[in-house]
Amino acid sequence: MTLRADWLPALAAFEAAARHQNFAHAAEELHLTASAVSHHVRKLEERLGMPLFQRHARGVILTAEGRRLADAAGSALSDVEGTLQALRKGRDDDQRVRITTLHSLAHTWLLPRLQDFTTRHPGVRLMIDTEVTLTRFDDGGPDLGIRHGPGHWPGLTAHHVMDDALIPVADPATAAGVSCAADIAKLTLIGDHARQGWADWFRAAGLHGVQLNLGHSFSDSTDAMEAAARGLGVALSREKIVGPWFDSGRLRQLPGPVLPTRWRYHIVYPSHRPLRPVARLFVDWLLETSAGERQRR
């Protein structure tokens, strides 16, 4: 006997009725009437020439033949559903880009600009991982990384995104009492884990042998900014991440040199595998956005 396409509605109704052992419940699941489910089942029984259910006042019970068909139909539909889910997941994955970067950059620079990317590419979904350690770009790992570093990493292609610089910042009350770099040396200084720090900045300011009055220290630069905004001391901020605190008026730039950072921001991806088209969209947007901001300066 050949399974034809017009058998499929009847098989679907039978499979649901077999699972529920109830035509009314199957009808609710399939958005049909109980009589429609019953009609489909009877049509299937007529084609097979055998009863699939024993009908009684309280409901229905599968016959031995019905049980065999229910097991086969359930297994087949489960396989089809699994395949459909895999196809949907594959389609969704084609539109997802996984990016790894620092929390400070994601929170203060990237997020305020992402609406432009979303407007241009509404179907693309970004998965942004923020972490301090350098992520491995193994198969199944991230597509892209935005890194603050020298620009050379083994096995990675790197494109320069933007430079950065270090500036001293403090809350408005603290800033009101500062007129020169020497005044900053007398204040509590907030530390972080960056390679360049206060000693470098004071040397750039022409102040040598300064005894640093270090207070709290933070591994995440956004925490250092927030600590400064709350009056816990003066922070040495990267220009690219301090914007939200300047915009809100919670931090102000203090007098002194703007010290270029030795490291710069780069967008990186594995050299050994082709860059997916959807990831290329993000790379192109990021480079265009940063270049546009440099030109407007």
UniProtKB/TrEMBL annotation:
PROSITE patterns: HTH_LYSR. Residues 1-63 form the HTH lysR-type domain. Keywords: DNA-binding, Transcription, Transcription regulation. It comes from the Bacteria. This is LysR substrate-binding domain-containing protein. InterPro entries: LysR-type_TF_proteobact-type, LysR_HTH_N, LysR_subst-bd, WH-like_DNA-bd_sf, WH_DNA-bd_sf. Belongs to the LysR transcriptional regulatory family. It comes from Lysobacter brunescens.
